[in-house]
Amino acid sequence: MPTIFTPPQVDPRRKPDHSHDPGEGDHGSGRRPPIDKRTGGSDNGDGDNENWNDRPVGSRGPRERLSQTRIGIASALAGDMMFFIAIISAFFVTKGSGQINHYGEYVNTWHPTVIPTILRLNTAVLVLSSVTAEIARRSMFRENDAMDEWIGLGKPISRRAAIWLSATLALGIAFLAGQWIAWRQLAAEHVYFASNASSHFFYIITVAHAVHLFLGLVALVAALLSLRASRQFATRQIWVDTTVWYWHAMGGLWIFLFILLEFFQ
Amino acid sequence: MKHRTLGFAYLALSTAALLAGTTLSLLMRLHLAWPDWPLPLHGPILPEEYLGLVTLHGTLMLFFVLTIAPLWGFGSLILPAQIGSRRMAFPKLNSAAFWLLTASLLIVCASPFVPGGTAISGWTAYPPLSAVASAGPGQGLGMDLWLASIALFSLATCMAAVNMLTTIVCLRCDGMAWHRLPLTVWGWFTASLLSLPSFAVLLAALVLLFCDRHLHTGFFLPATLVVNGIVTHSPADGSPLLWLHLFWFFGHPEVYIAVLPGMGLVSMVLANFARRRVFAYRLMIAVMVLIGGIGILVWGHHMFVAGLSPFAGSAFAISSMAIAVPASAEVLSWIATVWGSRARLTTSMLFALGFVSLFITGGLTGPILAQPILDQYLHNTFFVVAHFHLIMAMAGVFGLYLATYYWFPLIASRTLNERLGKIHFWLTIFFAYSTFLPMHITGLAGEPRHYAQLTGIIGPSGTLLSSTMPLQRHITVSALCLALAQIPFFINLWITLRSPATSASNPWDATTMEWAPNAFSEDPAAPEPTTHVAPCEYSLDGETFHPQWQPVTQPNQPE
Fold first, then answer.
1. Which residues of A, range 3-62, sit inside 8 Å of B by Cβ?
2. Min Cα–Cα distance to chain B from A17, Å
3. What are A204-261's pLDDT values in tens digits?
4. What homologous superfamily is domain B3-515 in, according to CATH?
5. DSSP secondary-structure letter at B88?
6. For chain A: N or C, fewer Cβ within 10 A?
7. What domains sit in chain A, N to C, each tagged with a CATH number?
8. Domain limits of chain B?
9. B194 neighbors B292 (Cβ within 8 angstroms)
10. Would you call B201 and A85 a contact, using CB atoms and an 8 Å cutoff?
11. Which of residues A217 and A144 earns the better pLDDT score?
């Protein structure tokens, strides 16, 4: 065979050249996968080939309710953080409110409270609980497994997530138990809520956080119940996602509060 | 509950609070002018009862009327339609907020009837009066009920704010971009954004006050305090100034929450009836958000005489003067929108213009009070009372009337009678000014506020108070007339609601989405609303207009 082929003349009555239409043509990297022309197929670079964001409300795809709930919980957490910021600013103001009395002496009645060392263990427990919670949350969104559960082929994800959420619940209860022990230890040293300015803040800060964490435990129980009882997979995803983000916020807040109480008194 | 029903429910709650609060204010005025006048079935009003009236009047009006009605009342009714949605983001959360607010109102209305009576520490609840139960009548159970009520209120407001914010962010329809949102929605958005941090801080302050009252702490109480001759000790050397900081960090954004939705609505209504675009529309969006933002930084101007460092006073004076800049920009935009237009002076338009007038009058005394050296003299005088009643109470109420007259065709398929509306407007604005303008004069003379007794005082104070008494009597008579001037409004409501519904769907030729034909449709098969243009698209001669829901058929539509 000759080593050089001369390609035969192609029929000049060619089909129209679509290679420059959006979605068609080589783009230099081989043929792109076909795009569903009904949904628009606008590849605007953010992976939104299905044009989810530009559809009317209610048809924006499987993540729509989830993103609405995330924005809701984010606003609620912003407000909640302001609650703690108010208490923390009162803490700093009270700590720094030394004054010169009418004898010309500087008086500051702030006696730092030495916090029980069990709080370090509690912090570690809470961080671990955030880890387990995040494992649970991410497992809800693993696409291949989620597909099966979405269309009703069993509940592999929900079962796995339920195990990790239960671990989070157990660790959360352990944290609260540890906080309780810390309060008993302080009470044994005769440091009560009403003892002095710094104990006021120690107790109000830890109790406020514990109340919020208890609400997080209630939410975890609700999420576990929804994994069993709720019929739509998207709803289960939303329950777990919201609860875990709230849990992370409480965990992050606790780290901040712990550093405050440990090092900034 | 559907958001439309909830909107009516919130408005009903606010109306009940408004009627109660107005009655209390009239009792206050009658007592000030004629102290010996006996209240029927009761006798003369005692000083502690007067202070209880002051507390309840402030609490009911600021919290239950001016926070609920413009924001959650009209917001729940109209906001979804204005952004092209048929629902809110979290209807159950909105419902829960409503029920908490109802409980809150019932608790605070129950407080006068408990042993000891209602709290007397004002809506501001300054310690040590509010922190020590023995510090005054009503400071026991009455104060506890007030605390419980406002704590529930704060929680409910945060819930409703989360709902409103998520609705605006997520549920805007196709084409409703941020720069096409009506300024009313921007007002609701900024007010909701402000509600979250401010009410959270109030809740924290209430928790600390509760601990001081019942758990023997000393967050706000100094180490040694003498209350009614009895020496009390607190375990920590706290300071009432801490409460003032926390409370006013909430309290100042609160007044912007009360007035921002009204400001947004006024811009849109002025544009509607002047048949023009809002002057500097996108700048007004930025201005509104800026007012909200700076409003978080000015709280110390309520504390100029509280013992702050003078340097802190200067800092707050600068930020308070700074907030006059975007507020003035907003006023100039209103004026420029209507200047030279042949505006159609319907009742809604008149109330919008009345809002502008009251905003200017009340606002001009703001920079005066923002200067610490002037506030040294004017603090706690009637000058301050005049300032906030004009710019917040009267302007806020005018905003509520504006919303009622403007949206009545949407809410009730009927238009309120124009003649009665105009009578209502002119009487109200005349008596509003007649009531509150003289307070500037008495305040400048040095007349203090919160005094239960303006007569029978000896010495120089007595001379001052007797010199201002004629004006005080005038103010009382005028306040009574102001209350009576609302009768035409209720007559109007009554006769309009009893008349048959009309079919005119857009009587004001408005451009915003709530006036679209299917905006409130409950039919799930109805087409989704879509927005095509910015609001206030009027032709140059004002004759034709392009509503937001109408598709664009010609190219080069101005944005």
1. 54-58
2. 30
3. 999 999 999 999 999 999 999 999 988 888 899 999 999 999 999 999 999 999 999 9
4. Cytochrome c oxidase-like, subunit I domain (1.20.210.10)
5. -
6. N
7. 64-89+117-263 (1.20.120.80)
8. 3-515
9. yes
10. yes
11. A217
